[in-house]
Amino acid sequence: MHFRPELVHIKGYVPGEQPLGDEAVKLNTNENPYRASESVFDAIRKVAEIGLSRYPDPLASTFRKAAGRLYDIDPDWILCGNGSDDLLTILTRTFVGNGELLRLPYPSYILYKTLAELQGAAAETVHFQPDWTLSHRFTDNPAALAAQRETHERSNRLRLAFLPNPNSPSGTILSPETILRLAEELPCPLVVDEAYADFAETNCLKLVEKTEKIIVSRTLSKSYALAGLRFGFLVAQPQMIEQLLKMKDSYNCDTVSIAAATAAITDQDWLAENRAKILATRGRLTQRMRDFGFDTPETHANFTWNTRSDIQVKPIYEHLKANGILVRYMNYPGWGDGLRISVGTDSQIDRCLELIEKYLLEDGGERIGELKIEN
Amino acid sequence: MHFRPELVHIKGYVPGEQPLGDEAVKLNTNENPYRASESVFDAIRKVAEIGLSRYPDPLASTFRKAAGRLYDIDPDWILCGNGSDDLLTILTRTFVGNGELLRLPYPSYILYKTLAELQGAAAETVHFQPDWTLSHRFTDNPAALAAQRETHERSNRLRLAFLPNPNSPSGTILSPETILRLAEELPCPLVVDEAYADFAETNCLKLVEKTEKIIVSRTLSKSYALAGLRFGFLVAQPQMIEQLLKMKDSYNCDTVSIAAATAAITDQDWLAENRAKILATRGRLTQRMRDFGFDTPETHANFTWNTRSDIQVKPIYEHLKANGILVRYMNYPGWGDGLRISVGTDSQIDRCLELIEKYLLEDGGERIGELKIEN
User: Fold this and answer.
1) Can you give the pLDDT at residue B371?
2) Angstrom distance (rounded) from CA A241 to CA A101
3) Most CB contacts within 10 A, which of A99, A185, B70, B236?
4) Residues A253, A259, A265, CA angle at the centre, nearest 5°?
5) B114 touches B13 (CB < 8 A)
6) How far is CA A296 from CA A30, A210, A338, in A?
7) What is the DSSP string of B173-227?
8) Alpha-carbon dihedral sign for residues B89, B93, B98, B104
């Protein structure tokens, strides 16, 4: 059968392991370990009373109004999606055509590359510096980067750049000032993927007013503990929203998720309390991993990135998995590997740290680096 | 900003009017007028108890197993989507590239044309015969149809055909034997969009075993009264599913909708009872519209298509709207116009019929055709 040829040869994106049972402690996909605000579930139960026989509001207006109030943004600057994945797909399809180019930093969210490939486009990666900042090369015109590519024909067709901020897997963040400069230098829109921004101190929402080139995407999956709901939104200037609207499925958000998401962002007390808990646990996790000898950069997200130059870390992932704890082992060719550990509850993190410590202390502590000495 | 040029020039799909208030009687988007099975809402309430902090199952396996049991199909032949719109988008993106061709009958579901345009592809329409059958031209190779097109360059690049069955707006149906013949003659896959098949006597699910060229899509929006939930599925041979999976968003169905959809298809008693009610009302609506002088073909869906050759029907749509009843006025250039009326509750349909009768009787009954004489 005649599939599009570019499709047959790509692998497709593989999301993090999602065991169907409830036994495993999941610290591998940056889910929030706590239950969402009860107002979310009240909203869901209310929808169940009303029924679902009618189509949802295509624009999710109740959510857009609530988000507009919260962030002091006109609702016409907001587009809702079936998770931010839906929005990233809409953005890629809107800007990047067959044979064109999408730019992303490396290492970052692997999905961006798949989105380009599904469009028959190419993804061009620019390596982060060792300190997780970006060099001027991120905004270079494509011709300047042509040497690293297989073909030169796409050299003037850079159409979109994705930048997760805070980044995954590192949890590091670039300042709004830096992002604005990157956007101004780029010849195309810059999507700032703020999936984790609620765990950071800064964000780029206010930059959208300054330039139509900056588009900010958000998700309720992480900071609102609603990964199972699939709801995200993006903020862009209205002339951008107008075109993006044509690309989305008419009813991309369902009635339950619109009501639940609206309830979620309306309960900012819940967010503040949840955030404080996550940040406290995150600080402890970061410190302990450093004590164990890991290189763990300061994180602004709900996970930590942990690398070693002295020992292999994949066996640690396997050791944890064998003991019922899933973390994410990631290996980035040309960069290195590491363990990305989501911030779980205190007891989940205690159990995880305990297992790592025991593993490192095996064989007379040879694998623990400086830990024994420090202790 | 550099949008994809094909996007800027298209209008985008405009769904049927969706008033946000609860006052209007909606007979315009083929929603089911009844409340879904209570087991659906029990499932939703159960999800609300468990919480939504985890990502959903990317494959919606519980639904696929339940549907597999119901239809005696291996779950690996089933792909779930965020409404059948999501599936139609996935199918179009999988098979139809930039500059290629998608075929659809006319008049049918307008969205198909938009889906082709969003890919930078073209849609080629083949008119139904006046009796709503399809001529051999639907399966002609594109070169034979080239004369009607603006450009010939796409003439050998037909990649996908969509066929709603039962069709909208007509409600008419082609037999499985006819569909199989069409598929065998086509040079590309044939998607049989069975959004309304639960209201018909036949369907094409069993044809999927016979040829990989037939793909059947279904939705829970109509027959299960779950338009607000966004859940659909398609049935295709597993080597087709394998490629389609690469194209879908990782978590395209949310935890609530997977649980609710699984509960819905498990309650076949509810479906049988609801279907019987809809079909009884549908029969009465059809008969009365014919009595009023409309040309109303025998319908196999949850709506009727009503045309007149003697009087304008758009004023009837406006008259109904002014009185709080929304039906769908559709005007197909080169074919004609008509009113598509969804099968509502008995009292909704009574009210609609009463308003139409009164309208036709105004001006001394001049507009009612033969009705006065028959009465």
Assistant:
1) 47
2) 21
3) B236
4) 100
5) yes
6) 16, 34, 10
7) ---HHHHHHHHHHSSS-EEEE-TTGGGSS--SGGGGGT-TTEEEEEESSSTTS-T
8) negative
Burial B278-298 (b: 16+ CB within 10 A, else e): beebbeebbebbebbbbebbe
In the predicted model, what is the mean pLDDT of chain B? 92
Share of chain A above pLDDT 70, in %: 91
Please choose, from the candidates B231, B263, B279, B197, the residue with its C-alpha nearest in 3D space to the C-alpha of residue B38: B263
**To which residue do tokens 């750049």 refer?**
A161
Residue B169: pLDDT over 80: yes
Q: Which residue in this structure is represented by tokens 């690996």?
A: B76
Please compute, for residue A373, the number of CA atoms within 13 A of its CA located in the half-sphere on the CB side.
6
- CA dist A26 → A16, A259, A324, A334, B368 (Å): 10, 27, 9, 28, 68
Please say whether the beta carbons of A262 and A275 come within 8 A: no
Q: For residue B156, is pLDDT > 70?
A: no
What is the structure's pLDDT at A171? Answer: 98
**B117 near A CB under 8 A:** no
pLDDT greater than 50 at residue A59: yes
Confidence (pLDDT) at B372: 43
- pTM reported for the whole predicted model: 0.94
A15: closest chain B residue by CA? B250
Specify the amino acid at residue A265. Answer: I
Range from A149-163, B66-80, B99-113, B335-349 carrying the lowest mean pLDDT: A149-163
Show which of residues 149-178 on chain A sit within 8 Å of chain B, judged by CB atoms: 159
Q: What is the mean pLDDT of residues A147-161?
A: 66
Taking only the tens place, the pLDDT of each residue in A286-337 is 999 999 999 999 999 999 999 999 999 999 999 999 999 999 999 999 999 9
Q: What is the rounded distance in angstroms from the CA atom of residue B367 to the CA atom of residue A305?
A: 75
Mean pLDDT of A271-278: 98
A309 inside 8 A of chain B by CB = no
- ipTM for the assembly: 0.94
Produce one character per residue of B103-136: b if its CB has 16 or more CB atoms within 10 Å, e if not: bbbbbbbbbbbbbbbbbbbbbbbbebeeebebee
Residues of A in contact with B246 (CB under 8 A): 7, 10-12, 118
Q: Do A52 and B33 touch (CB under 8 A)?
A: no
**Interchain contact, B213 vs A4, CB within 8 Å:** no
Helices B83-95, B238-247: axis angle to 10 degrees equals 100
Q: Name residues 18-57 of chain B within 8 A of A (Cβ).
A: 18, 20, 26, 29, 31-36, 40-41, 44-45, 47-49, 51-57
Tell me the shortest Cα–Cα distance from A148 to chain B, in angstroms: 25
